[in-house]
Fold these 3 entries.
Entry 1:
Amino acid sequence: MALVNDTVGGLLNHWAEVSPNKNFISYTERDLHWTYAQFNKRVDQFAKGLMELGVTEGSKVGIWANNVPDWLTVFFASAKIGAWLVTVNTNYKVAELEYLMKNADVHTMCIIDHWRDSDYVDMIRQLAPEISQETRKCIHAQKLPELRNVVVLGSESYDGMYNTSEVLALGDKTDDVRFQKRFAATNCHEVVNMQYTSGTTGFPKGVMLTHHNIVNNGLAIGDAMKFTEAENLLICVPLFHCFGIVLALMAVLTHGASMTLTEDFDAKKVLTSIEKERCTALYGVPTMFSLELSLPEFSSFDLTSLRTGIMAGSVCPIELMKKVMDKMHMKDIISVYGLTESSPGMTMSRIEHSAEQRATTVGTEFPHVEVRIVNPETNTECNIGENGEICCRGYNVMKGYYKNEEATFQTIDAEGWLHSGDLAMKDADGFYHITGRMKDMIIRGGENIYPREIENYIYQMPEVNMVEIVGVPDPKYGEIVVGFVILNDGCSLTEDDVREFCKSRISRFKVPKYVFFVDTYPKTGSGKVQKYKLRELGAEYVAKRKAEEAAAKK
């Protein structure tokens, strides 16, 4: 694979010219299908509308919506006129939204009116009550000094806000020559997307990603799965996250393929869409695949069109990966490891790797990306088989954190290496194994314990649907091992069952001291389990258990 210098908008133009009548976007639920040419025409009109709203090169255009069709319109329109798309987590509440919009200097905010139990219009008005009092395009909100426009994606009208049709109509006021001049000035090394780190730890930071970052990452992903123009990828992961916008959307765009989307994740809707649209690829975090396989009517769906896909977002359980390969016909499924700051892919398995290698490792380096494992204390490279921090260097490294040079310098060293904060090991065959986050590593009585190792053993129990291992503070050992288990429907286990299973397979100091059975885990909007919250919950549960044990002895 050779690196390319295409822009996001340039690629869309290319396929609209080469394959104008090829289907690009499908929504089964809406019975909506857009060809490359149809979608490109809509994008250009919306882009001219944004220009009429005062969006210039480098302006920040926010998008706060689930995977609705015009999410994609906003992204490509922004990209074509040199603006930055700032993606907003759909789960955000008022305080989080205020921080992001202020930190990102959002100029134009594109939203849906509501999502689940959240009224987005109302929350915007709470932050900027001036919207209803001032002329559109002239908003001057005290709390959001850079905000000038709010666009509601849809046909509803709200005081002080534009809707989709109004922005499209405004596009008629901007002549094509001015628009094409703006498009021609876009540069692949400029920022096209800013994503805020999911916040599993610490305060969110704006990760600046360029066209070059995400286009080439998507190209490499598609190449690894042998994508062709005949591919049809089912996208059910959020577009506001790198998994959706890069690993999915950019893989499709760079290969001139097609995509089918669901607006939110629903296991039944996903399988229905795959069957109806004859999708060949499917992405998801482990939780999503587990829910799909657990559907009572799973066997009634025809999934034989599936061939490949990605399981990522967190380290993939070995047993789950094998089930997906077998029961969902995804023999060519791969895993990808990375983080938002690496655009996001750093390592990946390939379809030519053995099923065992794809199920137990995160593969090898991306093309044109250097990867190494270093000792976190000395920064010296680790030996084969030795745990350390995984780092990378190459085209995929972010441009930096927005308005946060200190955090950028702490993450990218003087030699250009991006430090992930994740623990990994490289084996003798050159494959990488993720063993956890440095913060997730449990130190019990001086022994380093890696949660993923224990989780992989417990996943072998047929009753177990999901398991998470965390370390909880302990006065004697420093930390003790605690497990949180979600059981498969209709199954039952006791704490002793899990402990006895582990005792026969792993060292005694790794066996969970306590096992708690739960129905769900705290997660980020992108589906990642928030282990720091599980640690907090574990501390509460352990304290309660100890109090009960003490009371029973009296």
Entry 2:
Amino acid sequence: MNVSDKDFIVAIELGSSKISGIAGKKKDGTMQILAYAEEKTAGCVKRGVVYNIEKTFQSVNSVIAKLESVLKTKITRAYVGVGGQSVRSYKSFVRRNMLTQSYITNDAIDAIRQESYEIPFNDYTVLENYPQEFVVDSNVIADPVGVMGTNIEGEFLDVIAKSNLRANVETVFDNVGIAIAEELVSPLQLANCVLTDAEKRSGCALVDLGADTTTLVVYKNNIVRYLVTIPLGSNNINKDLSTLPIDETETEDVKLKYGDACQDLDAVDDSEPQTYTTSDGRQIEVTTIKNVIEARMGEIIANVSRQIVNSDYSDKLLAGLIITGGGSNMKNVVKAFGKSTKIDKIRIANKVNSQVVKTSNAGNMNLDSARSTTILSLLLAGTIPCGGETFNREPDMFDQQQKEEERLARQREAEAAAAAEEQAAVAFDKVKGDIRAAYEKVQTQIKELEEYGRDKKVRRRAQALALSILDETVGAKYEQAVKALEGKDKFKQSLKEGADLAEILQKSVKELGQKVNKANKENSAWGRLAGFITEIVNDEDNN
């Protein structure tokens, strides 16, 4: 096979325990793995979130370099999985009145869905959006297109995450110097590749037992119904073991050797050693080790069970529970989940549904391991070729120096852009403060006008304020501040707040203008005469 072909696909997984990269090529319905590389994260990615951009850059850069050395081809872009502790689902509702009885069109549904997608979440951004169901004039309908109605309400499931989740990932790949072909929501791509259509249709829950997090995705009728990330994973077991104390370098091996999610105390293996000897010679009872592992695993499973109940689909999962991820390899994990969730149909997904083979260049990657399902899912989602120029030599010192200079230049540009963005955010906050102050000023003027409207000076002050205040606050200065932040997801909430404040101020100014006109009319010569005549008429009527 000629691995120098450019039409291979590259995927990168930013995991809590390691950063891995994979390159593959689709041929005759089969994904051929051409290269695989990984680097330990050393704490730069915590709970699926990039915390240390520089260290993450170094790890990703190393992974890319390893892949390129095998492929003999420059990598220009990659598919990147995003996930982590802030990824979760949120239900939103959008209502629309069609004014008259009319047929509901695709355009109307698209507009409602787009409105749902753009609902601002404070410090969060929407990654994916799934329609759940629609209500047309009190009738629940899965597909309302073509239905006659006046009122329609759409229920949507927004998959959201902290705004900095994507921002940090994008900064890392900008520094590496390769484009992101697409940011894929890792748990959703994983579900697409390990669940069957029958399972998603009948109703099932996918549990991905990761290193720092555990993710739950619930399906029913082929629609994502619930997603939550629990900030607990197998690394928590390692931390517990280190308190026994077992050296951190040994905890992973101890967990793999003695891990049991649901011990059978009646079936004790007499041949098993009663104590474990640590690297420094201390002895710890194996029973103690097993109890620690089981307790933490039990906590993780209990949290999953509770979230399944919170999804409101616990009694609708006809296809049961599907477990994957590194933690699914633990002994008796199926038994433990069954005991906690009361779900009797449980299976472990240790491979993707698609046909995948690896070449001799793919290293020691295990295609039949649950640890590989996520990165294979990201690779299988790719469609755009990721290869660039081919080369027949290893990069020399000059290449590395040039690459580093380019990275530093990109980093300076990114820092300048971030500084400009921060400055724009501060400027917009000041504009919002000015609008709030203007509103208070208008309200004060309205009260003064109501009390001293006969005073010509008061009316003139009020009129001058009504004519000038909007230009000073929501005029060109406001529009310029909005333009500086438009299109940036993390400022959606702030922009929405600014728009709401501007609308409130405009209504208040309109009210002030109306009261000024009324006061001027009442206090003009004709107005005073009319008032005088009205008083006389009222007095005669009373008499």
Entry 3:
Amino acid sequence: MPRIKFLKKLILAALALIVVRLFFIQVIEHNYWVSKAASQQTLLETIVAKRGDIYVMEGDEPVKVVMNQKVYSIIIDPQVTKKDELKALLEKHAAEYITANIDEVYEVEGLRYSVVAKNVPRDVAAKISEEGVGGVWFQENNKRVYSEGEMAAQTLGFVNSDGIGQYGIEGALNEQLAGKNGLLKTISDVNNIALSIGSDNVKIPAVDGEDVVLTLDRGLQKATEEVLADALSRNTDGATNAAAIIMDPNTGEVFSMASVPTYDPAKYDQVQDWTAYLNYVTEVPYEPASVCKTFVFAAALNEGVMTPWSTYYNTGSTVVETATINNASKSPAVYGTIDMWTALSWSLNTGSIQALKWLGGDADNVNEAGRQKLYEYYQKFRLGRATGIEVAEADGIVHTPNEEGLYAPNLTYAEMTFGQGTSLTMLQVASAFSGIVNGGYMMTPTVVKGTMKDGVLVPKKYEEKDDTQVISSDTSATMREMLHEARSLYLKKDNPGYYIGGKSGTGQVYLEDLGRYSDPDGETTATYIGFGGVEGELPKYVIMVKIWGSGANASAVDSKNVFDELSDLTIDYLKIKPRS
């Protein structure tokens, strides 16, 4: 009997404990256990937005060059799937797409969600699905396809394995292209299959990214890259790199922008040298050499302190703050009293320094007033600062007239007139040059033409030209004529009916380890910039070319020859008719 009483008491005590525990679970800890259950029964799935496509122009028609291919990420619930079964499944069908260490995934205690493979093609995903393994599901994603291979790689950029745009338009307009992911929250079964029951179901639709249309002309872009690559293959001076930009000086639209060597955006992870990603037109400032003479000549003309017929006495060199600056040309034709036509055509350093002296009101000396005036024009031309184009760009360096710590400011500014002592991007130079030859207006360069909506191009709105000009239309016309005259010194004659002008620049390279510039017959960078169109009209295009390489003695003749080829191609692609 005592035993029965003891057992009754023991049972009652156990029941009391159960009741108390149930009370705690159902009342005191109710919210905790509901949350715990929900975490195992609720499926949270990202609805991936479709990344916008990218188009370029082919004549007047947009052509798609970057698009999406549907691929899948494989996601598992380690609490449901068996490790060995999963490993066998993935190795059988998707070994090359595995992105996680399966053993390490199963070592994480309580893990219910893990991405184990990415960029799995539809047919492979279908085969895995047919195996019917529980706790495995698929998330649809988009993989970028670059249909033109290496074309415009530095301008386009790429999308990395996490779906984030890098470099170029893909990086700069990543948010616009990517759109916004949606969310599906619903009750799921043991195999993480969504069930259409429950009052807490949530579905937030994805917002697809915008389709972007670039100003690049497909044919001209390809031709530009081919011309640059061919020029490097022929080069005997050791040049290893080349870059070019072709733009409309009247709107700022970029027709082509290229750097070689280049890469395939679809194989970005196979690039051996990361500098291949760089857009040398916008991201890498350099000393552009004598093409900068265009800016100081335009400033002096616009200020009325100089005309093309103004003269000075050229001895072949000039002294600024005890430093002797020489001309590259030793031709007898440029010594003695010469005019500014001759100074620009023969690219005389003494000529650009003379223009700076006149800007300061002293025909014999460079002074603070001249420095200040040239700096004002460099600011108007937006040199040494970002232009506002849609891809990544560098600022560069333009020293202020009285910059603290600047050694020999008069000498620095004298050297700036022929493109030393300052650091500019190709885009800045091409944009400023455009402002000089297009009637005097600075246009913000752009590589985005608009967006595609329902198969229709919606053009980007451009700012109208206002009444503010950086130089007068008369100064602009005079500069066009002086640049046309400067080009005429070269042996190649341009096709009849076309009006083309330009300026070359051969820059010595500053050698950091030696603390000085290279010798004239040492490493140099070759540049040529020019415009083209028909006489009596504003230019239709501006082209800038740069050729360089470590240790290379690049020649301005090489860059000018590339300009000639690109100029002829541009005339054809833009269908510019000659004046009869």
